[in-house]
Amino acid sequence: MLARREHSQRELFQKLSSKGFETNDIRALLEEFVQLNWQSDQRFAESYGRSRVYKGFGPIRIQQELKEKGVDTHINDVFDEQPDWSALLSDLHVKKYGQQAPDSMKERAKRTRFFQHKGFTHDMIRQLFNQLS
User: Which one-letter DSSP state was computed for residue 57?
Assistant: First the structure.
């Protein structure tokens, strides 16, 4: 499993236990993997975070997904250098809606919901719309 991509310890534990392995055996194996540096939750979090940023997701969504994956790190710990979230949001807006600002409150609400679903904060979205106006 680790040959294909990074996995968190929680993911590995769930996959191995679903295949019928004993809990104590799984824990011992995972400890060995960490000692041999074959598995690292920090490395998984960094890799996963980069891939999600590349796909256009914001900090809130990435942080929530990392928690679901069992990596109890904060978004600040995942990236060596924080991405420019405003630039990423702006690029996403151009890709999805072009350069045009929303022309009605209904359209603005629709775009706001889309960006919030992608994991961007309300302040980031408001700042984007202020720049477009």
Answer: -
Furthest CA-CA distance within the chain: 60
Q: Report pLDDT digits (tens) over 68-115.
A: 998 877 777 787 788 999 999 999 999 999 999 999 999 999 999 999
Looking at the whole model, is its pTM more than 0.90? no
Tokens of 39: 């598995």
**Structure-block tokens of residue 37:** 């540096």
pLDDT, tens only, 59-69: 999 999 999 99
The fold adopted by the segment(s) 85-132 is Arc Repressor Mutant, subunit A (1.10.10)
Render the burial of 58-83: b for 16+ CB within 10 Å, e for the rest. bbebbbeebeebbbebebeebeeeeb
73, 79 in Cβ contact below 8 A?
no
The answer to whether 48 and 66 are in contact (CB under 8 A) is yes
Instruction: Measure the CA–CA gap between 59 and 69, rounded to whole angstroms.
Output: 15
CATH 1.10.10 location in the chain: 85-132
- How does DSSP classify residue 111? H
Helix/strand/coil for 8: coil
